[in-house]
Design goal:
This protein is an alpha/beta fold. The chain has two domains: 8-165 and 368-387, Glycogen Phosphorylase B (Rossmann fold, 3-Layer(aba) Sandwich); 171-366, Glycogen Phosphorylase B (Rossmann fold, 3-Layer(aba) Sandwich). It is 49% helix and 16% strand. It contains 19 helices and 13 strands. The protein has helices spanning 16-32, 44-48, 65-70, 72-88, 100-112, 132-139, 150-156, 167-171, 178-185, 202-222, 235-247, 262-268, 278-285, 298-307, 315-320, 335-347, 349-366, 370-379, 384-387; strands at 8-13, 37-42, 52-56, 93-97, 117-120, 142-145, 161-163, 193-197, 227-232, 255-259, 271-275, 290-294, 327-329. Strands 3-2-1-4-5-6-7 form a seven-stranded parallel sheet, sandwiched between helices. It is globular and about 65 Å long. The model has no long low-confidence stretch (mean pLDDT 89).
Length: 396
């Protein structure tokens, strides 16, 4: 073994939230593994840290059976290319950041070749498709779970697992940042402000943008002084949202488009209207009441609905084990229903305060220094000679 050669760490992230988690993990690993090189599939945050991206992350950011089928040939070609390159020149360790439908087959092939495969973010087997746990066990060397209840599920099946907490809980402040966010964005402290979070994937914007814009119109009709913030993650999603504004004849609505700044937009809002996904957890960690909405291709929805185990899909409700904030899925996610839910939350200050208190407790439970814990778990899979040269983590 050539100890002078840099450690080589392959990673695949499949969407904007994965890019964020992977970026934090890369920083933690770089502190412990000076000179390590990172490569695979990643987004702008990873690339800014020196990650070599073989393919753009956006190619994998597709959700729903029908949507995946439309892009299957391209996605399968990307996976074949990544697999070929990794098997031809094996990394010291492979880290899959979520994206299980893309990553698990890749992990299984690498594991068979003796390459440690760490899956960071447990697939939501507790919500649907629970039989995947056997496929996960065959593919991974260890699962790094973000939520405390997931650990027992894997331990019961004899699958190596570590609960590391959620990196977002470490990154986002415990205290309410409403006033600071409004000052940063130049907003009045008294204005009714609502954040519109229609999703980070282009496929989500195609289904959600019009509904969110029409919801804003309904809210303004009942609350004329309302202001709306719409942070878009990429240039492509911004273009899609602008096209929806023109399609809905809504360019005169007081909707302020932001490039990024999602956390500031949610922190500044009185209530957030959010597409189901990681953004619901971000809103909860920012202590913001929310209404959750989601739409997808009708066939995808019918298939997913049959396989679901829980009555809720939003992460705040999953973590609480009950409906804490309202959810509207598919046909129920009408502009009228969403507007009424948002306005009800805005009008009920006592309810908003109870929700914020619950979200603070949730935040404390998820704050576990996740990136450092994940880095330590990954380093334990390096060859012993490599581990002898690992730098100690910086003192807190």
């Amino acid at each position: 073994m050539n100890l002078a050669a840099p450690l080589r760490i392959a990673m695949v992230a499949g969407e904007a939230s994965g890019d964020l988690l992977a970026g934090q993990l890369i920083e933690a690993l770089q502190a412990r593994l000076p000179g390590a090189v990172f490569f695979g599939i990643g987004g702008p945050r990873m690339i800014a840290l020196g990650f070599e991206a073989w393919h753009p992350l956006e190619k994998l950011a597709v959700r729903g059976y029908v949507e995946v089928l439309r892009h299957y040939r391209e996605i399968a070609g990307i996976r074949r290319d990544v697999k070929r390159r990794l098997l031809a020149d094996p990394p010291d360790v492979f880290i899959a950041i979520d994206a299980p439908d893309f990553n698990l087959a890749l992990e299984k092939a690498l594991k068979r070749r003796g390459i440690p495969s760490i899956h960071y973010v447990s697939p939501s087997i507790w919500a649907w498709r629970g039989k995947r746990i056997h496929k996960i066990g065959a593919a991974v060397s260890r699962v790094l779970a973000l939520f405390p209840f997931e650990q027992a599920i894997y331990e019961k099946q004899g699958i190596p697992v570590s609960y590391v907490g959620h990196p977002l809980a470490d990154m986002l402040p415990l205290e309410d940042g409403r006033n600071a966010a409004r000052t940063l964005l130049g907003l009045s402290s008294q204005a009714p402000v609502f954040a519109l979070m229609p999703g980070s994937r282009q496929s989500e914007l195609q289904y959600m943008a019009d509904t969110f814009i029409e919801t804003a119109r309904c809210i303004q009709q009942q609350l004329p002084e309302a202001l709306f913030l719409a942070p878009l993650a990429t240039r492509e999603t911004r273009v899609l949202f602008q096209a929806a504004l023109h399609r809905c004849h809504a360019t005169q609505l007081p909707i302020r488009l932001l490039f990024g700044h999602a956390h500031q937009a949610m922190a500044a809002a009185d209530v957030v209207l959010v597409a189901s996904g990681t953004a619901t957890l971000e809103a909860a960690l920012l202590k913001r009441p929310m209404a959750i909405a989601y739409k997808m291709a009708p066939l995808s929805y019918r298939m997913m609905r049959r396989m679901a185990y829980l009555p809720y899909v939003g992460l705040p409700n999953v973590l609480a084990g009950r409906f804490v904030v309202p959810e509207f899925i598919q046909d129920e996610a009408s502009p009228e229903n969403l507007a009424q839910a948002v306005l009800n939350l805005y009008a009920d200050d006592a309810l908003r305060q109870r929700i914020k208190a619950l979200f603070r407790e949730m935040h404390l439970g998820l704050r576990q220094n996740a990136a450092e814990q994940a880095a330590a778990a990954i380093i334990s899979y390096l060859p012993p000679a490599r581990r002898d040269h690992v730098a100690l983590p910086a003192a807190a």
